[in-house]
Amino acid sequence: MIKVHHMSLAQDASSVSKEDEAAKLLKEKFIEDLSSYPNAKGDIYILTSIRIFGQKRNDIDMLVIGFLNDLIIKGVKTKNYGEVKELSIKSFITNIELKSHPSNKVTRNGTDYVVTYGNNVKHNASQQCNEAKFSLYNHLVDQLNLKPFICDILWFNGLTRADLYNMHGSSYDNTLHRGFTFKEYINTILLQANVSKDESKQFYIDAFNNGKNEFETIIKLFTAKREPQGLTKAKFELLSQKSIDVNKIKQDVGSKLTIVTGRAGTGKTVQLLQLAFALASEEFGKRCLILTYNNALVSDIQRLIDYTPMPSKVDGRTVSIKTIDSFFQSLMHETGVLDKKLIPTNKSYSDDYQKYLKELYYYVTELCESKDISAIKDMPDSPFDWDIILIDEAQDFSDLEKGILFKIYGSSRMIVADGVDQFMRHGQRQIWERNIDKSLVRKQKEMELERRQKANLVTFVNAYAHEAQIDWKVKPNDNLPGGEIKIYKGYNSNIHTQLKDNCIRNGCENYDILILEPPTMVEHGDRICFKNADKYKKANINIYDGTNPNNRTSYPTKNECRLYQYHSCRGLEGWCVVCDKFDDLISYQLDHFTIPNDSLGLDEDVKKWRNVMLWSLMPLTRPIDTLIITLSDPTSKIGILLKKLANKYPDFIEWNID
Questions:
Q1: What torsion do the CA atoms of 578, 581, 586, 592 make, to the nearest 10 degrees?
Q2: Residue 514 and residue 576: Cα distance in Å, rounded?
Q3: Nearest to 301, CA basis, from 402, 417, 380, 197
Q4: What CATH number corresponds to the domain at position 395?
Q5: Domain holding 638: CATH number?
Q6: Is the domain of 279 the same as that of 145?
Q7: Given a cut of 70, is residue 420 above it in pLDDT?
Q8: Whole-number average pLDDT of the chain
Q9: What angle in degrees, to the nearest 10, is found between the helix axes of 125-144 and 211-223?
Q10: What pLDDT does 599 receive?
Q11: Which of 182, 199, 223 is the endpoint of a domain?
């Protein structure tokens, strides 16, 4: 007897989704059809509302996976052997994309199926189904190093068999109608999977390379509950909490330009996330896009989003995050300003970005009418169909970028987080409320209370800024006492073990250790990577190498700490942060820093020093509990400054250099 199981993996067990309802019908139909095979044995699992991590799609409608014995289907047509009399079904795994649209909202465009939603927005259902399959496959490779043959099925639960036949005729594809039979399900698999023959010349299909063990391992992976830990858990809980400030701000979203201001560590990014999740809740149902400059921050926030029950589809409420570069690149491609063959890594793209941006600005603000803007947002699977745009580190935006977004979305649908005096790309600060009526702007009072770092770390950063003669002052939070700074000649496995033990004691994970490296520690040979990667591996320092371009748009899914260049740390945080070769970073910045045009009548060396010191506050404000600083030359100017602070605050700053 074959047992058919349905398991919903939704985080909210009290709600019943459309996928759960469809799975219940599918389970009943399979049980009915398989009763005709009394000698067959095995299990079929129908899993719904699956969350996966680190992939393009993080939610899977339905996964059907089976491992069977003695199930023989007669008279089926195979992909590679034509029609066969008997076929043994040993195992299968299918991703099912569920669509419940009626026939008047489903069309066939070539070989793809396009569905229309109530607001007349069209989405390519075939593409969504295919993306989900490959996200599922990549997840299994990443987590289990398994490579089963996954078939994808587009289930139109609102269509009859006749409806589908009228669309595809006799050329069958991977679509199924409401009430399909188990044999029709197998036939759809056979359109994609090759069959094999055993020694007795029996035809069979088998999706797995390692039999029942692989089947059970996959079931265990998806049914095991994955809970956020450490800082991810803390952020997850913050997103779930109701905030008086957020409630006040969201009342004006849609009618006013919303500006949130504060220095590093005062909670701007968290508040931005809280707003995004509140607006994308079932109550408001908004589609929210967060934009930032930093790939590493995109990965960090995407990891957090993947832990939540927030849908990731293109056809409903959601929270998504992109780099500003990728957003404008997509817009340049869509409008024809930029050749689609040209990608961000192309040198000419980087060199000519301002030229392309000016062309895009002229096209959008001067040539496009409202109907043209609507067409850009309403095209199938549009990457520009957003209700609310939220921008982190908005002080660094150019006038061209701001003008383009204002034209497409309107200033009232923008929420911007202004980092006051933190900027990297431009010397000129962006004033978002410029030329906008004050009655149409909601500007929150600047946040000054530290919300990330423990009090001793805040004291250290304030003292560091004072010694560097830069204007910086953040108020320590009395509710966050403690914190320590340790200064060494170099980083090693003993120090790393101490940080891991610290994390374990405080309920954190390896992900909460953040190691920052200067550009001089990045290898630019056959591949770009961290120079000491092999050395760290031998020392059992397990890292996710964020200096490798291939890792910039993903995040670690194994038990690894993060390692990035200093220039990628904006917006990140760690329970423990390692600022490796900090003096090398300062030297590099002084050598490469371009003096901004300003009105201060200061010596150029003084200007350069103060600007570099202001920039260096960025990595120093990343840790929550422990900051490790290593120095190549303790007698350097920055080394002498740090030694002075260690002498002044021996209670919480350790100078571990002889």
A1: -110
A2: 6
A3: 417
A4: 3.40.50.300
A5: 3.40.50
A6: no
A7: no
A8: 87
A9: 110
A10: 44
A11: 223
Exposed/middle/buried for residue 109 (C-beta within 10 Å: 0-12, 13-18, 19+): exposed
pLDDT > 90 in the chain, percent: 50
Alpha carbons 141 and 85: distance in angstroms, whole number: 35
Which amino acid would we find at residue 202?
A: Q
**Cα 194 to Cα 79, 178, 247, 535, distances in angstroms:** 6, 26, 56, 45
First-last CA distance in the chain: 74
What is d(CA 342, CA 333) in angstroms, rounded to the nearest whole number?
A: 9
> HSE on the CB side for 486, CA within 13 Å?
15
Pairing of strands 203-205, 82-89: parallel
Ordered DSSP codes for 365-379: III--HHHHHHHHHS
> Which pTM value belongs to this model?
0.76
Residues in a beta bridge with 388? 288
Domain that holds residue 82: 2-223
Where would I find the H helices in 146-229? 161-168, 182-190, 211-223
Distance CA 504, CA 56 (A): 31
Size (the chain), residues: 658
What's the total number of domains in the chain?
3
Which structure tokens are listed for 63? Answer: 């996964």
* CB atoms closer than 10 angstroms to residue 505: 8
Using N-to-C axis directions, what is the helix angle for 230-240 and 295-307, rounded to 10°? 70
E-only strand ranges, 419-455: 441-443
Residues 208 and 148 in one domain: yes
In a domain, 448, yes or no: no
Question: Residues with Cβ < 8 Å from 431, sequence gap 6 or more?
Answer: none
Is residue 449 in some structural domain?
A: no
pLDDT tens digits for range 345-373: 555 556 678 888 999 999 999 988 888 88
Tell me whether residue 346 is in a domain: yes
Q: At 298, which helix (H) or strand (E)? A: helix 295-307
Q: Does 561 have pLDDT greater than 90?
A: yes
Query: Are both 107 and 242 inside the same structural domain?
Result: no
On whether both 278 and 165 belong to a single domain, the answer is no
The span from the CA of 431 to the CA of 151, in Å, is 51
Looking at 443, 468, 503, the residue that finishes a domain is: 443
For every residue of 10-23, DSSP letters joined together read -S-TT---HHHHHH
Helices 582-592 and 637-648, interaxial angle, to 10°? 130
Q: Is the same domain home to 72 and 53?
A: yes
Is 93 among the domain residues? yes
Exposed/middle/buried for 360, CB within 10 Å: 0-12, 13-18, 19+?
Answer: buried
